[in-house]
Amino acid sequence: MRVPILKQGPFLIASVQSALTDEDLVQLRDDLTQMVGRHHSRGVIIDVTALDVMDSFAARTLRSMAATIKLKGAHSIIVGIQPEVAFAMVQLGLSLTGVSTALDLEDGLNLLSKQMKENQNGG
Amino acid sequence: MPEKKNSRNSKVKRTATDIQEAGDYARSLLEASLDPLVTISPEGKVTDVNEAVVKVTGILRKDLIGSDFSDYFTEPDKAREGYQRVFATGFVTDYPLTIRHKDGHVIEVLYNASVYRDVKGKVAGVFAAARDITAQKKTEAELAKTNAALQGQIEERRRAERAILELSTPVLQLREGLLILPIIGILDSQRARQLTEQLLNSIRDNRAKVAVVDITGVAAVDSKVANHLLQTAEAARLMGAIVILTGLSPEVAQSLVSIGVDLGRLITVGDLQGGIIEADRLLGFKVVHNQDDFTTRRV
Question: In angstroms, rounded to a whole number, what is the distance separating the alpha carbons of residues B131 and B35?
Fold first, then answer.
């Protein structure tokens, strides 16, 4: 099932609706990379609120997704990891190091806006 | 010639006496036995008993001999099955039966029985010995009762412990986005897990971005507890929140360093006050102290 990706100004929002197969994850990574390039997006939010489980393949793919998108000039934020999923992940040693996180979509967008402002002021 | 006859007679008399004495000796042992002893014919009739059998059944010896063995039990069929098994396999051990005394009371016993043979080697009958386990059974019943009572106490104790656990890990919201968790007492794996659950749920419910976990009141922090705290901080990060650990005493800090725990990924501040100042900084709060206002209000 293809994950819907919405454009919100300079940002892209990918909302995961249900459990993702390995193929879905790879597809998402390719779609996002492509769209970031096409729209010159500055940030990407991947909303995993609907996910009950996060396995090692998903964690690895999300990390590589963030790294790839970074190379294309955009910052990624994973939002919506539920308490049970967060707990299970750390117990399994899946920590998503190097990937930014936020509580939900609202916090994620605030974070991206703040970063964009900082970049503009700095650069 | 008369001497030879005399010596032969005395020899015969001596042998007869020996046999008699041997027989008397054996019989006296059987009668002295505290365990009821019976012999059972292949037809299931009692062929011999000792004094203990008379006592345990309340029936006279002359009435016992020739009667059906199974007549004296609460489960006659089970008794019959028992001696039939002995005839078939040669022996039976710890066979449970219940003897009914003439006056109505019952005696729980375990039977050990085996076949015995005549001089020619042919099976002559079953020799059965009963062991009274009434007292044993009573003890078993009492033990079961005590166990049940103890179980009840254990359940109650567990309930109390759970209640204490819930009391001692409150999650307090100090300001918008700032949570404080003062931990007091023993931090074991179960409690650490509960603490993490509560924290993560509170982060979601209060939309918290910083959580200050204070362990001033925690008695001992070993590497296991330290790892629990590390995991808690990582899980909080996955939800977009930062954990600041405060209240590590110099001793605790020392022991953690010597164990070799890498708390590098964790933000630690000496005390709660310092932790809150750092949290305010991260959240963008500024605390202003207006000295004049304070003085006026005191009056």
Answer: 6
